[in-house]
Amino acid sequence: MEVNNAIGRRKTAVARVYLTAGTGKMTVNGKEIKEYFPSIVLLSAAHKAFEVTNTNGQFDVNAHLDGGGMHGQADALKLAISRALVKYSAELKPALKAAGLLTRDPRMVERKKPGQKKARKRFQFVKR
Asked: Rounded to 10 degrees, what is the CA torsion of 81, 87, 91, 94?
């Protein structure tokens, strides 16, 4: 039984995925995925790679998520699963790439600058 592992990142979230041939069972941090991601939108994001490649129910996924929020973690998981599927079979790469699932989203939170309220918002200017 071969185990394919991959890593995915989004904002400050990191997902480590271990993919094995199985029945489609997905666990995230020791919990069932429906328990970890109660939202349908986040669940569909996690299953997107399997839907694009028509491999639903063929792999068991054991994922370890760390950092970030729920949406960042779901997107990190989506990227990690896609990368693990490519490691399993290179034939799946064109379909995943066409769906945009192999691209790491580089957008991060901009840092707060000194002398300003936030990253770009400034204090009100006083003329006199």
From this structure: 50
Q: What is the DSSP string of the chain?
A: --EEEEEEEETTEEEEEEEEESS--EEETTEEHHHH--SHHHHHHHHHHHHHHT-TTSEEEEEEEESS-HHHHHHHHHHHHHHHHHHH-GGGHHHHHHTT-S------PPPPPTTSSSSS--PPP---
Nearest to 1 by CA among 17, 26, 22: 22
- What residues contact residue 102 under an 8 Å CB cut-off, 6+ apart? 79, 82, 83, 86, 93, 96
The answer to whether residue 104 sits within a structural domain is no
CATH classification at residue 13? 3.30.230.10
Q: Residue 125: how many CA atoms within 13 Å on its side-chain side?
A: 2
Model confidence, pTM: 0.90
Q: Does the residue 128 lie in any domain?
A: no
Q: What is the pLDDT of residues 55-75, one digit of tens each?
A: 999 999 999 999 999 999 999
